[in-house]
Design a protein that fits this description.
The protein is α/β, with parallel strands linked by helices. Helices cover 43% and strands 20% of the residues. The strands form 2 sheets. Strands 1, 2, 3, 4, 5, 6, 7, 8, 9 and 12 form a 10-stranded mixed sheet that branches. It is elongated.
Length: 331
């Protein structure tokens, strides 16, 4: 199965994504490497050009380059897609889901609903543009529509654009994506839970971004040695993808793990036997979402300022104490 990502530098978990693609049988194409970042609309322009080189019916995965890892064989993901496609003959796009209710604490879910309405104009669960699967021809039309929507609306955020293209078809009781502006043509949107978007979904979760946001340790392949004696053999015999524990202790099937914001995917790499990225690549990581990045940067500055004030106060106390002792001895 072909997979496309856009990455302008060796950053974050790109190294691990490449390794996981080779391990699980994906033909990964890294676009834009070495070029200056041109924004999210530019991303879809070069994806569109690459998709045109494939047959229209070829299944393709589009995913982020710095915070995703394949966690299951391509054949399993393709079979999962075929199961859904057998149920309907309409064009279908499979997309990742961000902030599913079963992954959130009650209060965080309520805050997410407010955030979704204010930022995206829609209620969660939100469609995440970081991982999508579909036939090359359908994804070409979706990329074209996203570029056109940006041109008409002036919107540059691909997450907002994608969620603004979502519409509910009450007649069929399905969510759809507009793929041809000005026509009734649309694609069924299948929110595939196996495209696992991870972040800490509790009220205090964002505080962990000050240091590290590490996902729950995965289960599934961690015990592969018990059954088969080796990971390579497990890949050949086990007919299920990785499972990751969610916030309620339940196991989710995962085909692609997407560590949104600044989630550290190191434990996922370890569980799959995939080499972690070089430290230099991880040092380049940054949070792409403006509000979270502002929160983290502002909090870090406040924290550093508080530490500096506390250190100065301790220093002052120490100096005053020493001065009093010296004065007491002298006088």
């Amino acid at each position: 199965m072909h997979a496309f990502t856009v990455a302008t530098d060796h950053e974050g978990f790109l190294h691990s994504l490449r390794t996981s693609a080779k391990l699980f049988g994906y033909e990964l194409h890294v676009l834009g490497l070495g070029a200056p970042w041109g924004g999210f609309v530019w991303r879809y322009e070069i994806l569109l050009e690459a998709l045109r080189s494939l047959p229209a019916e070829e299944p393709v995965v589009i995913l982020d380059g710095y915070d995703t890892i394949f966690t299951a064989p391509a054949a399993l993901l393709e079979e999962e897609a075929k199961k859904t496609l057998r149920k309907n003959a309409s064009p279908t796009v499979f997309a990742g889901v961000e902030h599913r209710q079963e992954h959130c604490t009650w209060l965080f879910w309520k805050l997410t609903q407010v955030f979704g309405l204010r930022y995206f104009g829609t209620c969660p669960p939100l469609v995440n543009a970081g991982v999508m699967l579909g036939a090359a021809g359908i994804l070409q039309r979706l990329c074209t529509e996203m570029i056109e929507h940006s041109r008409v609306s002036g919107e540059k955020d691909d997450q907002r654009i994608l969620n603004q293209l979502v519409a509910h078809d009450a007649r069929r009781n399905v969510d759809t994506l507009i793929i041809d502006r000005g026509t009734p043509q649309s694609a069924i949107l299948h929110k595939l839970h196996g495209f696992h978007s991870h972040c800490d979904r509790s009220l205090f979760g964002p505080l962990r971004h000050l240091f590290s946001n590490v996902p729950h340790v995965p289960c599934g392949p961690l015990n592969y040695e018990i059954n088969s004696g080796g990971f390579e053999e497990w890949l050949q015999t086990a007919n299920e993808p990785l499972r990751v524990r969610n916030a309620h202790g339940e196991s989710d099937l995962v085909y692609v793990c997407h560590g949104i914001f600044s989630t550290h995917l190191g434990p996922i790499c370890d569980a799959l036997g995939i080499e972690r990225p070089p430290p230099a690549d991880l040092a380049k990581r940054k949070i792409s979402q403006d509000d979270i990045r502002f929160f983290v940067e502002a909090s870090r500055q406040i924290l550093r300022g508080g530490v500096a004030v506390f250190a100065a106060w301790l220093g002052g106390v120490a100096v005053a104490s020493v001065s009093l002792r010296v004065a007491h001895k002298l006088f």
